[in-house]
Design goal:
Helices cover about 55% and strands about 5% of the residues. By secondary structure, the protein is mainly alpha-helical. It has two domains: about 210 residues, HUPs (Rossmann fold, 3-Layer(aba) Sandwich), CATH 3.40.50.620; about 90 residues, Tyrosyl-Transfer RNA Synthetase (Orthogonal Bundle), CATH 1.10.240.10. It is globular, with a radius of gyration of 21 Å. Bound molecules: tryptophan.
Length: about 325
């Protein structure tokens, strides 16, 4: 039988904070479901993390923990290429090249640069500014058909396409132009204390987000305290416009139990927020418990973790270097 080549998909997350329930329900859970459909590359974007100052031992621990968590969430390292960005030097190498094909004006227009430089006025470094060229390299090295994009990554994906088209326009078809991939059921999980902003690993308010490794009693406490809406009806009804707090909790409950929003409204009819909030907390605890336990177990198995990231880097390098060689040749570098 003729083997059908699968479409290639790629994504990464920076190990600059603890992975949250939002990272799991919004991204990683979808990655797990796509394992067989696509040829997948997933990485820990440690090179991106250093655009903000990191504590070295924390960065190292979080990078390994993130890999353990990917696996604990169900990403099978035999079927997905899981690797650490800095282990594949082609990212830095193509990143430099693409810096020279990305315009100052384009980089100046990136909203993430504007946001981040406003937040960290004391460390507006060159890396923060040219970061999108490294993202373009991360993506284009693997010639992916798709890049899954959330709202906050859309601009990066567009810039990547522009840079790739510019490069191809000069040198011929070197890069595949990736399409943005918007998951059918992308749960967008919001902060528990500020339900109009996304649950984020870099949130200053620890009560706004749930970490994958969090203790059950802390999870329950945060859900009991979650902001609900100040309307008077006090009933569990889905309406993100006027009831963003309750609607977010319903999204979470739906994602972890598989129940529809309609079923949830029926289940809690007449019960009010006081019964609903701890029920969401308990359901989240049961979903995260096996993930936490498995991640803790994997974290202790250093030899296994090492074998996974070494194998991942080898597989990723094979594809990445093929692209890099082509690029070097096209732009006129002498062959090594
Ligand atoms: N920017 C992403 C984050 O903030 C990580 C990332 C780096 C990424 N390079 C990428 C995501 C390429 C998708 C594709 O977590």
């Amino acid at each position: 039988m003729e083997e059908i080549k699968k479409k290639v998909m790629l994504s990464g997350i920076q190990p600059s904070g603890e992975l949250t329930l939002g990272s799991y329900l919004g991204a990683i859970k979808n990655w797990v479901e796509r394992t067989d459909e696509f040829d997948n590359f997933y990485f820990m974007a440690d090179m991106h993390s250093i655009t903000a100052r990191q504590n070295p031992s924390d960065l190292r621990r979080r990078t390994l923990q993130q890999l353990a968590q990917y696996i604990a969430c169900g990403l099978d390292p035999e079927k997905n290429t899981l690797f650490i960005q800095s282990h594949v030097p082609a990212h830095a190498e193509l990143g430099w090249v693409l810096n020279c094909y990305t315009m100052f004006g384009e980089l100046s227009r990136m909203t993430q640069f504007k946001d981040k430089s406003a937040k960290h006025k004391d460390n507006i470094n060159g890396g923060l500014f040219t970061y999108p060229a490294l993202i373009a390299a991360d993506i284009l090295l693997y010639q992916p058909d798709y890049v899954p994009v959330g709202e906050d990554q859309k601009q990066h994906c567009e810039l990547t396409r522009d840079v790739a088209q510019r490069f191809n326009g000069i040198y011929g078809e070197v890069f595949k132009i990736p399409e943005p991939y918007i998951p059918k059921i992308g749960a967008r999980i919001m902060s528990l204390t500020d339900p109009v902003s996304k649950m984020s690993k870099s949130d200053k308010d620890p009560n706004g987000s749930i970490h994958l490794m969090e203790k059950p009693e802390d999870i329950l406490r945060k859900f009991k305290r979650a902001v609900t809406d100040s309307d008077t009806e006090h009933c569990v009804r889905y309406d993100p416009e006027t009831k963003p707090g309750v609607s977010n909790l319903m999204q979470i409950y739906s994602a972890v139990t598989g129940k529809s929003l309609q079923e949830i409204e029926t289940e809690f009819a007449g019960l009010g927020y006081g019964a609903f909030k701890p029920a969401v907390g308990e359901a989240v605890i049961e979903t995260l418990r096996p993930i936490r336990q498995e991640a803790e177990r994997i974290m202790k198995d250093k030899a296994y973790l090492e074998s996974v990231y070494k194998e991942g880097a080898k597989k990723a390098s094979y594809t990445a270097e093929k692209t890099l060689r082509k690029v070097y040749k096209k732009i006129g570098f002498v062959e090594r």
